[in-house]
Give the backbone structure.
Amino acid sequence: MTALVFLDSEFPAGRVADATIPQLSVLDQGVTRGDGVFESALYTGSVVRKIDAHLARLRVSAATCDLVIPEEAVWRAAINTAIEAFDAVIPCDEAVVKLIATRGNEGNNSGTCWVTVSQAPALGRAQRESGIDVILLDRGYDSTVAERSPWLLMGAKTLSYAVNMAALRHAKKNGADDVIFISSDDIVLEGPTSTVLLAHRDGTAKRLITPTLETGILPGTTQGAIFEAAQAAGWELGYGPLTPAHLMDAEGVWLVSSVRLLTPVNSIDRTTINRDAQLHAELTAMVNAIG
Amino acid sequence: MTALVFLDSEFPAGRVADATIPQLSVLDQGVTRGDGVFESALYTGSVVRKIDAHLARLRVSAATCDLVIPEEAVWRAAINTAIEAFDAVIPCDEAVVKLIATRGNEGNNSGTCWVTVSQAPALGRAQRESGIDVILLDRGYDSTVAERSPWLLMGAKTLSYAVNMAALRHAKKNGADDVIFISSDDIVLEGPTSTVLLAHRDGTAKRLITPTLETGILPGTTQGAIFEAAQAAGWELGYGPLTPAHLMDAEGVWLVSSVRLLTPVNSIDRTTINRDAQLHAELTAMVNAIG
């Protein structure tokens, strides 16, 4: 079951719609051009986690795409309406709140914006426990492209995810679960739907590291929240550039995202990597405490 | 007015639908992930031009994306039904026939496929006469990426066109009409929605040149048809790699596409380039004769 609410100026709390029947024009540039932006947030324990960070990133993505979207208060109202509709039918432990804003039909002045709430996929929960096997794939871009080429929309979370999906299919065809993208100059970037973290022990010090945003990756809302918690817990923080060798040397590597949360990496390109159980337990506790 | 026909196994000639009301699920991965493929063909003089080439390219795009789509006969039947519906309401000189195939809703076994027929935009017709000012923009990829990284879907015409649209907006903000993408290693690629052609005179010989497909560009159906006609007319044919210097040196540069057809380039990065009127007239005659 999916609860669906459109942002609609005639409905201050959002317009509830039936997601089981068609609700979108085939002429919407969201579908004809993959032209729009989105966010996926986790709804659990009666809370939409990191909603401020998601709304802030949605706004940045939209601005990068010259897309005018409604004010945050309008999104919050629609989210609340969607959650109420969802809870009334199928309350569950974990649900995905998806925010989408498209450019609307060609020639129209306004885009199409909606919120859906659906049960979270079981696979993500399983992978948090089991860990995942990943392969490294070339993203084709070098690590400096974002700064010189804003039209590439690096760092914006657009609906044009065909390459991200193709990379995941490529991983599955090759017996892996997921992907870490590498730049053409051999710098670690991100997963198709996640941020990369790695951790090191240095004597008693613990150090948490993620690729630098200058590589053009998406700023991870979960990475941001974990970094805040880790710093408060006395960890050192670090930002790439990172190479594949850094991944192989780490005490642990994780893919983090809003819905799947913290997923440990078991192997990279079929080589088993370190999994420090203590570090994993500490980071998992931090992730579970994200509000 | 847009005529809309879905490919639907219960309707051998396609299922006619009303494009003015919502007909697509908001959960379709065509919109949530830009995950699908498309073609745009020109319908003029009672003929859908180059329909064989468009259907062949749609099939290649789908295969590149691991997308199973209906047989060509099913597409042809739906196209015919859509054209009949369009002609019955608003016959016009030039219309766009768009074929779209998405991956459908998550978890579904089948995608969503439809055909639309709409009046062709007036701007394209005007630009055929006036010519256009283009800017060169870095596409971020180097010219060898396609061969080593199939998951980047280079050469497939997917719905994930957000970057193509952003590049066109960037051109307009900078006082230009269109874009020619350049690889990070300075090789001429393609336009966001077109193929690049250039022509040279060498004594009495005429030579028509286009970038090599090995750069990962989309194989242009219009470029293919013009090359065939030019060869029959005694022109020499050439394939890149081409650099920006080749564009500046040519007797003429054109962007070609199925709907806008042959559009002469007036300037590149604000520098006026050659426009050989005789070559333009010959190529225009070839384009107008494409069946």
The longest strand of chain A covers residues 36-44. The first helix of chain A runs from residue 29 to 32. The CA atoms of residues 149 and 216 of chain A lie 10 Å apart.
